[in-house]
Amino acid sequence: MRTRTTGSRTSSRRPSRPACPRTSGRPPSPAPPSRSPVRRPHRAPPAPPANPAYRGSRTACGEGSRWHPGCPHHPSHPGIGGVGTMSTFAQITAVVAALTLTAAITAHLTGRRTAGRYRAALTAAAHAAHRDDLTGLGNRAGFHAALSAAAERSHPVAVIVINLDGTRTLVGRLGHRALDQLLVLTAGHLAHVASAVGGAVFRMRRDEFAVVLDNVADAPGHAGRLVAAVAEPTDLRLTRHRITVTVTACAGVAVFTPYEDPDQRRALGRADRAMRAAKTIGRGHTAVFDPVTMRGHDRPAAPDAGTGTR
């Protein structure tokens, strides 16, 4: 109803109604044609799976066999406890066991990795303790270790001491850097010649090397070949240009017989005395220790003199 107010007068109007066809004299409007309702084919609900956890009633909850939370007819979900699945306590136990096993495996692998690194570090430290930092050859400790191994086998070996000639003059003319390069290259030449006959080379002092050979009979010949290898021209790269230098060396030979004289330092002292005798003869000479001609007390060799040269 719609109300209209004008001043103090209020009027009401009712909506007009259609005239009755019987009273108005108009013919009635024809009725709309009837349409038959379209019937859609009935679709059966999907069959529930074979899992017994999917037990639901469409008539009970209206959701059929589909699981949804909070339904008393579907109290469990596949894989979260219930019929045919583990309970919550069993799941917690399984997770804790898996975590414990994983932690144990991780600790075991970590321990093995740590032990491997520790053994590698010990091996590297032992290797570095017997190696010279500049040339990569064995040092004095490595030399004595080689003589100790020969003493354990009771096998005589030849000890050759090689000392370079004129190193002070080279240092005064070209500097210590040139001497370092010369020592590295000379070490490579000596190692190449000694390894051909099964020998080992060691750097004893700044410009002095020692060689241990199993072939005692031909030790003087091997010493001569080692001295000849040192005398080969060597190229040094100090600036942009190469400098070719030639140095000589003297060698002394002695025999270390463990079953007669087990003192290793005495064998080194004898070879050092033979080398000094060769230097008195001249550059590039070799001498073999002779207890008759090289008289003197068999004292051990002098300790490492650091940067001292002859």
TrEMBL record:
Signal peptide limits? none
- Molecular function (GO) terms listed? cyclic-guanylate-specific phosphodiesterase activity
Pfam families per the UniProt record, alphabetical: GGDEF
Q: What is this protein called?
A: GGDEF domain-containing protein
- Give the domain of life: Bacteria
Q: What is the lineage of its organism?
A: Bacteria, Bacillati, Actinomycetota, Actinomycetes, Micromonosporales
Q: Which residues cross the membrane?
A: none
- Which residues are in the GGDEF domain? 155-291
Annotated stretches, region: Disordered: 1-79, 287-310
Q: Record the organism.
A: Micromonospora ureilytica
Which InterPro entries does this chain map to? Cyclic-di-GMP_PDE-like, GGDEF_dom, Nucleotide_cyclase, Rev_trsase/Diguanyl_cyclase
Q: Which CDD domains match?
A: GGDEF (cd01949)
Q: Where is the composition biased (Low complexity)?
A: 1-10, 17-26
